[in-house]
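User: Structure with zinc ion, tokens only please.
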Amino acid sequence: MAALLLFISVSKKCVKCKEAPAALVIRAGDAYCRLCFKDFFVHKFKAVLGKNRIIFPGEKVLLAVSGGPSSCSMLRQVQEGLSQKANKKLRFVPGIAYIDEGAAIGQSVEERQRTVAELQAVFQATGFPFYILPLEQVLDLPASVVATNPSPSEQPASAYKAAVGHFVETDGSNNFPTPQEPKKMLLPHVQESHTLQQLLGSVKTLTAREELLNTLRQHLLVHTARTEGYSKLMLGDSCTRLAVKLLTSISLGRGAQLAQDTGFSDSRYGDIILVRPMRDYSAKEIAYYNHLFTVPSVVIPSVDTKTVDKASIQRLTESFVTKLQADFPSTVSTIYRLQLHTCFMHISTLNILGTCVLQVFSASCPSLTVKPSTCVTQDQREAAECMYEMVRSRALRPMSAVSVQPGYCCG
Amino acid sequence: MSSPLRGDGGAELLFNGVKKHPVTLPSQSEPWDMKQLLVWIQRNLLKERPELFVQGDSVRPGILVLINDADWELMGELDYQLQDQDNVVFISTLHGG
Ligand SMILES: [Zn+2]
Ligand SMILES: [Zn+2]
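Assistant:
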């Protein structure tokens, strides 16, 4: 009896190895298997640091870890990178800073202690020195923290090479941090928590409150880096996060800061350089990596975790970007790539997304002659929604030529 | 029919802080699909603000759905027919820092 054997495979194959079944769709059409995804994820981290050559061998780098998925994933990448064989090894000296914002979101002392204990266990396991900082500490900082310290010296490419050479000669392994006694977090005085809450409470809108929190957080991190002798501050902002930040900045009318807010490195504080090695990762990639490779992260409710989308511009933008990402997976990386030069932003965006976005962006562009559209200036919330609708309806037929139609989106 | 259901990365805030839900679905003549599961979750597990989890008849954008550790986009999304012992994970990617 003749037999007919059919091997039917309906599952999609990985685009990289073309063998294993795909497990994750990163962008439309790019489906990776688990192994290839891991390689891709880990490689990207080292590649971005290697390409930018901004972190010197042996340099002290403070990792800002919020306990959220992205910064916890960053911490894992640093751990992995330091444990590699010599030629592929990351060669800086890390420390961890965590800011306990419990007071800002009205957590009780017990809740704060519980979160801190959870994170402490994660940090201790890394063997890196770590600092647990109640946000209240920012109240004690001198105003000068906010000011820009002069950069010690410009560091040209030759300085990088010299540092590498020196590092190799002196055997970099000695520079590895010795595990420290964990620093006990001193819980802030109740009075200080009150002062902080009053400060935040004095700000009317959720939008402004999130902005203020952001500023306070940043200052405390920069201050800690300075006093503890770190010269780089590594932030865990993902690509999705940065796209949200970028559009939020635009909505808040802060075009001038855009490149600094979202770039790979940010030298606004002079002696302390901010770096964002996670900016090439989408929130989805991070969530998947963390799930698959059991990267612990802690759910910390934020000011807005359960609030409605329209409660603040940040929230609104987040939901906008997320919607975009779901509909057109390549859009988010497009948005964030635009930050390279503010002036090119509107043009690139126009090419991909359409006129309305041009108008929204052009409102924050100082060198543009096109009048800002009514979109941004009238009602920022509606503008964001309007922007989404426009992008959605137009992305189906991408525009390749520049055509300006002022006021189109708002009718 | 049972299927462990998990919420990672903030999704558990929506499920009253419970991270793992071993779920036994009532038997029905047709196999359960994801679409029906979402309706069931909404009726039985979501304590507050279901709009943060569902939108229309699917999940809200920003919630990653994994079926047996694979992206549900590769599994037919809402049309996927659940098997006994399937592992379904919902991960919120919103507010990640
Ligand atoms: Zn593969
Ligand atoms: Zn311009």
